[in-house]
Amino acid sequence: MPSITEQQLDDAQSLWDYHQLHHEPRRTDVAIGLGSHDLGVAIHAADLYQQGRFPLIVFTGANAPTTVDRFPDGEAVHYTREAIARGVPADHIRTEARATNTGENIRFTRDLLGAEGIHPRSATLITRPYQQRRAYATARKLWPGIDFTGSAQRLDFRTYLDEIGDYTKVLNMLVGDTQRIWVYADRGFAIPQDVPTHVRRAYDRLRTDGFTQRLLTE
Q1: What is the pTM of this model?
Q2: Fewer CB atoms near the end CB (10 Å): N or C, the chain?
Q3: Gyration radius of the chain over CA positions
Q4: Domain ranges for the chain
Q5: Which of 3.20.20.140, 3.30.70.1170, 3.40.50.620, 2.40.128.20 would CATH assign to domain 22-151?
Q6: Buried b or exposed e, range 21-53, using 16+ CB within 10 angstroms
Q7: How far apart are CA 166 and CA 3, in angstroms?
């Protein structure tokens, strides 16, 4: 067990719960799998594809400091390989390997599809579990007119921690994703969202405790 306190885990649980959208999976024109350190994005995308939820997947993502060692060829490239290994036909996948942030994930995907004459009316955003809210808010801002559904593997927080294995990384990522909810809205990158008082207090405690590696300068 990492040297993280129960209070810190409880606070991280509050952030985790806040980022869950609980959208029900449904059929959409396309899926967009956002790159991260979590291969579960590709696994979940392949599972939903096999269920007939969408006919096309775009995996988008280059690398970040948290992923370059795990996915040296780029996040989207490794996601594509995983989905193909799980039975998704290669010609039903597009790989966008330049994006380095969520805004670029959305814009570059829109441009890639548009260049092929593909103009979806609905899309499933597939992310790591605690990126759902931020990705949805960003997509709603940057690609208006699309009916977005958020989706991620349904795991409880403690199970997810054990599967990733690096508790400190996950807590740092949770704190960073939470801060981006209001910072990106203030900068015009995402639609505004309410942040409940208990979530903000949990964020403040974790930030004070030093989980600051993924924070932006406000």
Answers
A1: 0.90
A2: N
A3: 17
A4: 6-18+156-208, 22-151
A5: 3.40.50.620
A6: beeeeeebbbbbbbbbbbbbbbbbbbbbbeeeb
A7: 11
- Residue 217 pLDDT greater than 50, yes or no: yes
> Could you tell me which of 58, 97, 48 has the C-alpha nearest to residue 75?
97
CA–CA dist 16, 129 (Å, integer): 8
User: What pLDDT score does 2 carry?
Assistant: 52
- Per-residue pLDDT at 1 exceeds 50: no
Mean of pLDDT values over 85-102: 97
Q: Is there a contact between 128 and 79 (Cβ–Cβ < 8 Å)? A: no
Band of residue 65 on the pLDDT scale cut at 50, 70, 90: confident
